[in-house]
């Protein structure tokens, strides 16, 4: 939802996420643009005459394109589904994304789960993602889910921080609940650490793009106590990698700074890269495909490229 499709960014630069496949139709602006590879020249000099000439005979072989040129704006560091929110990294202005709604008042959004009380708010988009997950859990008899907390604005977080103290609650702007991509999930049967709902989520949430954000054995890394109820949406394929490699979001973002990650998800192959934002904002990615850009909320972006069907030739 908040992930920017870099196919759009790439179109502005005219190289395009799918730049390996060339389309030789007349008026194909991509042809002239690819040669110049600048946004400025792309819209100039694209006369029909020259296009016709270019396409009149068998095309002259051109140097093979080996990657993707994208342009990233500085503010994209603070946009997307992978933003790190902790004591050092606050929710950026406007980072809450799609506005949250009161789920008690929006009965149509409550599919397969209850609410702890009538104040729970969450964006319709995240609610839908959560509902998809719990509807699948119900198919195997796990069906006592409830949401105990969703989106919290800064005033609510401030109140909570004062009531619970600095050890138990984050200051305003530093809770994932202020970002709008997290929720606390409960079970009406028993505590989440024991409940079938908690166990099912711990094993399966990654398939739906969610991660258990504060695991029991990672408190030294997250700085947050074990919270079997707190889930964060990061999206696929990221959640799959984090689950498979047993990484928290902190560890995942740090690992991407060390090396790129190749993975598969839903029958597709992905290459995942971290890039610091340079002064000119230009990034050269070594593979092609449709891609997404997510900021890390610190100093750069994660570029996720869908390179095609799993096992297919690139
Ligand atoms: Zn929480």
TrEMBL record:
GO terms for molecular function: peptidase activity. Residues 121-235 form the D-alanyl-D-alanine carboxypeptidase-like core domain. Residues 1-19 form the signal peptide. Residues 19-69 are annotated as: Disordered. Keywords: Signal. Residues 19-53 have a biased composition (Polar residues). GO terms for biological process: proteolysis. This is M15 family metallopeptidase. It comes from Paenibacillus rhizovicinus.
